[in-house]
Structure formats: C-alpha cells, structure tokens
Amino acid sequence: MFPKFKQHITNAMPFLKGQRLLLACSGGVDSVVLTHLCVAEGMDVALAHCNFNLRGEESDGDETFVRELASKLKLEVFVKRFDTEQYAEKKRLSVQMAARELRYQWFDELLRNKGFDYVLTAHHADDSLETFLINLSRGTGIEGLSGIPEVNKKVVRPLLPFSRGEILGYAQSENHHWREDSSNVSTKYLRNKIRHNIVPNLKELHPTFLQNFLHTQHHLQQTNGMVNQHLHELKSELFLEGEDVTHIPIAELQKLYPLESYLYGLFKDYGFTEWNDVKNLLTAMSGKQVFSKTHQLLKDRDHLILSEIKNRVNETYTVYLNVDTSELPVSLKLEEIETVEKQGKNVVFLDKEKLNFPLALRKWEKGDYFYPFGMQGKKKLSKFFKDEKMNLVSKEKQWLLCSGDDIVWVVGKRADERFRVEDSTEGIIKITLVQ
C-alpha cells in the first residue's frame, strides 16, 4: 500500500510536500494507518485528537493511545476534550453533528493559531460509498452524489482511493496497533446500518463493485465541475454587483431552462435551497422578500436584490460640533459658516440656534416623521421612502441626523424644514456628507 500511497501523493497532492500538516487521529485503524504512511513518506505532520467524552473510559483510552502513538513516532500532539452532549443540546443538534461541528471548529482554530497549512483526515473509499448512499436515501442532486471531495479548502483526504479492506490489510501486515470504537458496531446509526447491512451485499454483486463505484463517482464529480463552471460564468453576467447589494434582472432569469435547476444552482451558495421560494418571488409584487439564514432576496420591480443579512445597528451615535466624526458609520463634516451656499442632497445648512447639541445619528424607526425641506406639513418617513422609490435594503441602510426627538436631516436625501436658515438666523451650521 505504501508505494501506491507515495505515488498518489506525488501525482495528485504534490502541494502537501514541504507543508506543515495537522492529522486528525482518532486512534482507529484508518487514522493510525494514515499517520504511519505520512511518517514513512517524510511528511511534516502533527496529530490532533478529539475526546468527545461519549464513551466513558473507552474515550479516555483512545486519548491515551494517541498520545503514546505520537510519543513513539516523535510527533507533536494536540488533544481537546469536549462536552459534546451539552453542546448538542444547546445547539439542538444530533450528537454526531455536534461532534462534527466541534471537531472542525477546533481544527480551524489550530490552523490559524499554530501555523498549520492543511488538515488531513483518513476518509477512504468505503466512507465515500456510505456517504453516497446516505445522500441518495435522503434525496439529493448531483453535488450530493459526487461524494467526499479529496480537497475541500484546507481539508485534505489522502486515503480516498483506498478501500477499508486495503487499509486493514496494511495495518495487519505491518503489525500496527489501533483502537476499536465500540459504537461502530451499533446499527442504531444510519451510517452503520448502511456499512453493515447494505454495503457487503452491494460488493457481492460484482468483485470490483467498489472500484466501479469510484469510477462512476469520478465522472459525477467532473460533470458537477462543468455545471459549477457554467453557473460561475452565468453569475458573472447576471449578478450586477453594487456596494452592498447585488441586482439580478428577472427577465434574464425567466429565460433560463430548466428554471428550477438554474435557480437552485445560482442561489444555493447564499442559503436559498428551496428553489420554489425564489421562483415564486419572480412573479410576486414588489417588496416581497424571502430569507435564508445569511441572506435576503427582495423583489424590486424588474430585479431581485440580493444582500447579506446583517444585524441592524440600533445604537445611536453622538455628533458634536467641531469634533472629529471619523468614528461615525457615515462621514459627516460639521462647520460654522457666515453665509449660505447652494444646498443639495449631500450638503445642508441649518440654523444653529434651533439645534440642540450634541446631535444624534441613528437608523429609522416605525412611526418616524419629518417636515421635508421646501414643503408644508409633515410626512411619515415610510411614505417619503416610498416616494423616493427606496427598496427595503436602502431603507435599512438609511441614517437620520436628529436633534433631540426631531429629525434634522434624512442624510443624503432631504433636510427638515423646521431647521432651515432664515433672515433672522444668527449662526449657520453647514453639514456635508463626505463620500
């Protein structure tokens, strides 16, 4: 197995050579074999072991074994103990998903803080087959059938071309020792049911079933790669990037066929996996919106507007006269002048005596109103925004400059008539929105 592993690293993963590598080692046969293979190949590895505290003394025994393996091979070792069940309950996750989250969060932390370049895991061909069957049983697309990727950002899986049988045979022939996880024999977990009850029967169908499956999955991965390349090119044409939002023309989306597949492919990276929600938005009234965990998608006349969901800033910023305003979320320049110049959207002139300093900078709230400059009477901000044809995203970004409870300036839009400069005005404040 070692010559085959050595050749695989040389041909498929030459980028690992000379890099500092963190190897996830549970103490099981797969990760123990990967450890010995990497050491034999002269790769710069350190071990990382997660003790999830799920199997009592057995979990502690795994930790001790990995520490002793690292000592024997003169490798640096990192160990982290987790209260996995408490984390699962807090996050409302299954124990398996909680363990996965905790594991990869810790690996990311080690990569950042300890100077490692990649994380190696010991997933192999049988793992990829099991994942394929799990995804197939739950319903999935081509991405879910493409299996475990060999390289996923900083996570690398050098054993994917090898079967569980090859790994076990190598460990036995080299007289390597490892730990057996008692939970692996339990069929209460879906993966174990597939591993023990389904995969052996599939392998009986043909002597080279697993190898044939890997070839098929390789073709699926290549097809998925072509699809992703096409979607990337389509996004560059249709997704018109703005400062904080992306505009997508609805008419161009409606030309795509099959529409459902395109909508899923174009918007899944933003968390919109229910393509029907996006499809219904194409014909909805303006102002209709749908949300994922990370993004919002708004129908605005002829476009969809995509933006990241950010926590709305509720705090109020204090604005003083003749004090640096560089820490404000918008850059304002306040100065006392003697004569009024031309007023515009980005420059306002106010009667100093009518202002109560310090002023306040805040976002709009329901029920807000002001007296638009040049008009008689008050207007609700919601009506003003509608007249200005501002979409929901623009409204959420809008700042107000206030004196006490009164709006002085809808920043960059319109000043308030009550604070205008008159013939009797003795002090004039000029405020400029610096862009």
From TrEMBL:
Q: Which GO terms describe its molecular function?
A: tRNA(Ile)-lysidine synthase activity
Q: Which Gene3D superfamilies match?
A: HUPs
Q: Where is the protein localized?
A: Cytoplasm
Task: Give yes or no: UniProt keyword Nucleotide-binding.
Answer: yes
| Entry EC no(s) | 6.3.4.19
Recorded superkingdom: Bacteria
Keyword vocabulary terms for this entry = ATP-binding, Cytoplasm, Ligase, Nucleotide-binding, tRNA processing
Instruction: Give the primary localization class.
Output: cytoplasm
Residues annotated to bind ATP: S26, G27, G28, V29, D30, S31
The domain section of the record reads: The N-terminal region contains the highly conserved SGGXDS motif, predicted to be a P-loop motif involved in ATP binding.
Q: What does this protein do?
A: Ligates lysine onto the cytidine present at position 34 of the AUA codon-specific tRNA(Ile) that contains the anticodon CAU, in an ATP-dependent manner. Cytidine is converted to lysidine, thus changing the amino acid specificity of the tRNA from methionine to isoleucine.
Q: Which family does it belong to?
A: Belongs to the tRNA(Ile)-lysidine synthase family.
Q: What protein name does the entry list? A: tRNA(Ile)-lysidine synthase
Q: Which species expresses this protein natively? A: Flagellimonas profundi
